[in-house]
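ok trying this again, last paste got cut off
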Amino acid sequence: MRQVQQKDTLTVKPEAPPLLWRHRHILDLDDFTLEEIELVLRTSDAMKEVLSRAIKKVPTLRGKTIASLFYEPSTRTRSSFELAAKSLSADVVNLSAGASSIVKGECLVDTLSALEALGADIVIMRHPMSGAPYIAARYLKASLVNAGDGWHAHPTQALLDLYTIREHKGSLKGLKMTIIGDIKHSRVARSNIWGLTTMGAKVTLCCPFTLLPAGLNHRQDQFPKVTIEADIEHALDGADIVMALRLQRERQPSGLLPSIREYVRLYQLTESRLAKAKPDVIVLHPGPVNEDIEIASSVARGPRSVINEQVTNGVAVRMALLYLLAGSRQL
């Protein structure tokens, strides 16, 4: 990608034709091609350069309005989107479910209509119900970005994970990625599986079978083929990348695990277990991190960890997505 830069401007000239980007909404990565993911990653390179400047701002989306609608608490994702929008000079409207008419019973469609009436060009939404963004997209004239829906998808987190891996490994093709933890309740894992397999990586899932999505081995027409390995040391053998997932106890019914202590004994990512992976392995975690539960503190803070880089890269990737969506709508 070639960049033409001046003091406070950014012009990104994609190498591929403009028609390469065809998305009005970003709901998940199951409908992204390899070329489209590559375009997001290349555009993120340009955005990261902006963030390295003394003045981390360009006028690309000046006069446009980005609205965030979060029905669940969020620190990293919400702050990342806000910084991304402001770095592109957009106006930002933040709406939390607990401090809006939602608590009075206003339905999702009416809330979205109100945001559009206020002039929102792009709506960023997190919702506890899987599939809610797909319903919202049917009623919105504005673009919609899924910032996480239930157990289903978190596409922008997966894209920043891909970007972080790419920075360290170059091409993802042929790499082994091991994901350890609560796969069943993880929207991050689902979106990462789509993105990783599209980019040519091999994915191994490791967790108790009670924490696997039902029927995963029998839905290859609906979900990419992955390897399932219950033994953590076998799963880590030869891994290029390892992602530990948080145990989402707030989403779990009782009975899926004997105890947290038993989970820690069998599935915590420790230094001794990480030694089974390749010497240049990198460790990711989507956050928030429960240190010394799913991951030992020495690993989370150790030299193989890129967890803080994920947070930093999240702003650049979300800037890229807002930029590309703006172009698709000719804002």
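PB: full thing came through this time. The longest helix spans residues 307-328.
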